[in-house]
Model the fold of this input.
Amino acid sequence: MTEKTSRKFDFCIKIFQTSFSMLNAIFEQRYKSSNVLEVSAFLEDLGVNVSKPIPLGLFISSVTEPMNDVGEASLCLRGAILYARRLLTKTRQLRQYEPRNQEILENWKKCKTGSLKEEERQYFRDFLLPVLMENYGRLVECMTAIKTKEGILENVPKELNVLLQNEQLLPVDIYECPKCKKKTAVSKISSSKVEVMNCVEDKVPLVHVKSGFVLSSKAYQAWNVWMEEYTREILSRIPCKHVESGVSFRPLGTIGVTGPEEVDLAVVCNGKSIAIECTEQVTVDDQKNDVKNIIDKVGNLGLFDSVIFVFMNTRTTRAFDEVSAKYKSFLFPIMIRSPHEFKNELQKVFEKIWHYSS
Done:
């Protein structure tokens, strides 16, 4: 590489890294400029053209590999200027939301009283989230089966063998009382011998009926926050300014001992403060996860412009649709899905939120 070519090469790198860093700063330097796929997905989600006339992947490759001549360096320079303009244009566009973003974060800081279930959330992220991202359908099906079958799974799909290897799923022997039919699980991992056991209530010997698998106690507790932390992981792949999960807030403008409310996820994105509430089963019958109850809770906090309601299934579809239609500019329901589909649906919901606020 000649000295002239080397100068152009260094200049290209500096132009791109500087412009990308300015954009990335809005998102707390979350993305690495050296990861081509991550950068491309990030910019596409922001609406930046990464395909024409010079594909972003081709350009990044040109600034990470030595150039052979001035012609290659000149082409690289044109690409650097092209993407620098696009990135700076997008940076200027997003900076207009920054005053409002900071105002939202300041209000949160004033009203935040704590974070909940942090240990369970970290455990879920460490052991269960990677499996969920790779085998969403299998793991959700498995966990649903455990819940509906007295906490016992008869077989473990081969895709979930990692949960056996890291002892999130434990092999057990299942015993049953011949009178009351109550089942008892005894770990196979235990080093102690299993003596004859009697039913606590009926005082008769338990009978071995089959073998199976149960969740470890920590995994069982961690799965209680799966929808929240899974949604948070998907949001990390969407250009949001700030995301927190399991946050407790007291209403804006209140002082003293006003009772706080828990919000599953709190999101700042393009000048909007968005609450996300997650529940496996939607109801419209004045219970804790009742959609109207959640609308009131989030609305009374005075901290959020909208609430996204993430659910697995709904028991009262017609009633739910009626409530959704009534609050259509504030409530945005979405069914949880596999990673790619869920990300796309969340992006559509964000677009609806900005549409109703424009």
